[in-house]
From TrEMBL:
Domain Glutamine amidotransferase: residue ranges: 50-193
Cross-referenced InterPro entries: ChyE-like (IPR044992), Class_I_gatase-like (IPR029062), GATASE (IPR017926)
UniProt-listed Pfam families: GATase
Classification of source organism: Bacteria, Bacillati, Actinomycetota, Actinomycetes, Geodermatophilales
Species the sequence originates in: Trujillonella endophytica
A Gene Ontology cellular-component term: cytosol
Alphabetical list of PANTHER family matching this protein: GLUTAMINE AMIDOTRANSFERASE YLR126C-RELATED
Name the record gives this protein: GMP synthase (Glutamine-hydrolysing)
Length: 243
């Protein structure tokens, strides 16, 4: 029997959390028995053996890694400590790992990069360009050199970690994707999101500081015209490579 993948989630809102899980299932092509979800915001990370899983996925989050500790909740501080301890195991073992949005902040901080609010991007669709290293990366096989992706983040990786290889960039955010070792990946954009998904997130997080709440309906009208077809393919490729 093939080993399942593990999805570590941190969204407290059920609508956003369940939509995220459904999106990862859809884009990876995995069934629920093949993608175990652990909601870290609800309870401490359970003990598990990395060898029991084909790979680890980390979804997005309302948490902001670069906020001062005194502004973080006790739950956020616990989650960050648990993810850092997990990465202490993942990175040396080069365990297959894919972190989306919150994952790049978590991995970037862990690996000595600088994550701050310099390159935050509003909820929008942006063109992402692969670097030469990205064009040669097996997880990005078959991807066009430039593709549209959905973003919406308050912080981003301003200085690439010394251990990382830059795989993709965009005009407003120089670090859109990187790899550490051979198997540890992170993106700033959301490969698990389609237009319907980002509309759901925008409604759930209307008052979370990503945009002025009164602009919600205009944002929904604007984002609904986006055509995003490519980013989800890399999740399917990642799973196919490591399952």
């Amino acid at each position: 029997m093939r080993r399942p993948f593990l999805l570590l989630a941190t969204r407290a809102e059920d609508a956003a959390a369940d939509d995220e899980y459904a999106a990862f299932l859809r884009f990876t092509g995995l069934g629920e028995s093949q993608l175990r979800r652990v909601r870290l915001e609800a309870a401490p990370m359970p003990e598990f053996d990395l060898d029991d899983y084909a790979g680890v996925l980390v979804g997005g989050s309302p948490f902001t890694s670069s906020d001062p500790d005194e502004r973080k909740s006790a739950v956020q501080r616990r989650v960050e400590a648990e993810l850092s301890a997990l990465l202490d195991r993942v990175v040396p073992a080069d365990t297959p790992f894919f972190g989306a949005c919150y994952g790049i902040g978590t991995l970037g901080v862990h690996q000595g990069g600088v994550v701050d609010r310099t390159y935050g991007e509003p909820v929008s669709c942006v063109p992402v360009t692969l670097t030469p290293e990205g064009r040669a990366d097996p997880v990005l096989a078959g991807m066009p050199e430039v593709f549209d992706a959905l973003v919406g983040h308050k912080e981003a990786c301003r200085v690439l970690p010394p251990s990382a290889v830059l795989l993709a960039s965009s005009p407003g955010c120089p670090v859109q994707m990187f790899r550490v070792g051979r198997n540890v990946y992170a993106t700033q954009f959301h490969p698990e999101l389609d237009v319907a998904g980002v509309v759901t997130r925008a409604r759930v997080y209307q008052h979370a500081g990503y945009f002025p709440p009164v602009e919600l309906e205009e944002l929904v009208r604007r984002i609904s015209t986006a055509v995003v077809t490519e980013p989800g393919r890399m999740l399917a490729t990642f799973v196919d490579r490591y399952r």
